[in-house]
Design goal:
The chain is an alpha+beta fold. The chain contains five helices and 23 strands.
Length: about 350
């Protein structure tokens, strides 16, 4: 059961950005997955398959997600999670989903952003059942955390919901400690540093009588002990951080000491490591995460050219290929271009 008191306390600062590495403290472990609880979602698809295999997303799916993320207001997502212009968002997320970092990609963005077909659907999915007005009058001077009446962990900023973690969905309860709402498995007797659960699916820490939890299994990962503390990683072979290699069209990269395999060929891309021979035909090589694409001279557009609006269609250049995205395909009515870039709009 959630705690009886739902008193508000100031939230810790700086959680709006995705962290690149796991630290030894449990607070960093909780933040690494975009600040989104692994318990969220109606059976979200894990980012990584058994054996550490990542399948990059189609660029059409990423365009769909970014059209909504850059057009919809009042989304319950941390500020700065994604770029605010359509092209910047699409390029950044397309590359991230084709890299080893895809294993920690936000479950909310993966489960809601890739599936919603309107702003209403995206907001509803990301709220996880929380009331849209739960933050009315809260967070006026800075972020505050709370537990709602159904045990969800809520962050309020400027009177709107900016983060929801649905603790009960993962068999957990919401607790507020040191100004931060978190999902916990229950009580514990003695404070202890973070460690892997006996099942190997969670990172656990006993802190001030609460058993804090991070569910690696929801991401298709396992808890792995290391000298820096427990980490969520694949079950593939050990590796040295920063190393990459190619096995045909599959890029093999390292994430938290274990290999991640990115199937670049499944999306018509090449492996991005050791790709000197790819430009033999005079094409220009562009990186897409751990993968690569070859832009042939006759491809037809300059990737550096600014995007433009053609009625309700947003036209831009991706990897030397002209692309057009119809804003009305997700219920948005127009394309707008200003000093923030081009994007769809209601």
């Amino acid at each position: 059961m959630p705690p009886a008191s739902h008193a508000l306390r100031p939230a810790a600062r700086g959680r709006g950005r995705v962290l690149a590495t796991l630290g030894a403290t449990f607070s960093l472990l909780l933040a690494v997955f975009s600040g989104v609880s692994a318990a969220e979602g109606d059976s979200p698809r894990p980012p990584v398959a058994p054996g550490g295999l990542v399948m990059p997303s189609d660029i059409e799916d990423v365009e769909h997600m970014c059209a909504l993320l850059t057009a919809c207001d009042k989304l319950p997502l941390p500020a700065g999670l994604v770029p605010r212009d359509f092209v910047g968002c699409t390029r950044a997320l397309y590359a991230e989903l084709a890299s080893a970092a895809a294993v920690s990609f936000s479950l909310t963005l993966r489960d809601c952003g890739l599936k919603a077909s309107s702003c209403t659907e995206l907001r509803s999915c990301a709220l996880r059942g929380a009331r849209p007005d739960i933050c009315a009058g809260r967070g006026k001077t800075g972020p505050v955390d709370m537990c709602d009446g159904d045990g969800r962990a809520i962050t309020c900023t400027n009177e709107r919901v900016t983060l929801v973690r649905d603790c009960p969905r993962g068999g957990e309860q919401c607790v507020v400690s040191e100004g931060r709402a978190a999902c916990a498995l229950g009580g514990c007797e003695k404070d202890a540093p973070a460690a892997c659960s006996p099942s190997g699916t969670r990172v656990l820490e006993c802190k001030k009588g609460k058993l804090l939890s991070l569910d690696c299994g929801a991401f298709g990962l396992r808890c792995t002990p290391s000298a820096e503390g427990p980490k969520c990683a694949t079950q593939a072979a050990s590796c040295n951080e920063g190393t990459t290699r190619c096995e045909g069209s599959t890029a093999v990269a390292c994430w938290h000491g274990h290999e991640v395999r990115i199937d670049c060929g499944a999306r018509g891309l090449a492996c991005g490591a050791g790709m000197g021979a790819l430009d033999a035909g005079g094409g220009r090589i562009s990186s897409v995460g751990a993968c690569a694409a070859v832009q042939v001279p006759s491809a037809g557009c300059d990737p550096a050219s600014p995007p433009r609006c053609d009625g309700a269609t947003l036209r831009w250049c991706s990897l030397g290929q002209p692309r057009g995205y119809l804003c009305k395909s997700v219920g948005l009515q127009k394309c707008v271009a200003d000093d923030k870039g081009a994007r769809c709009a209601p």
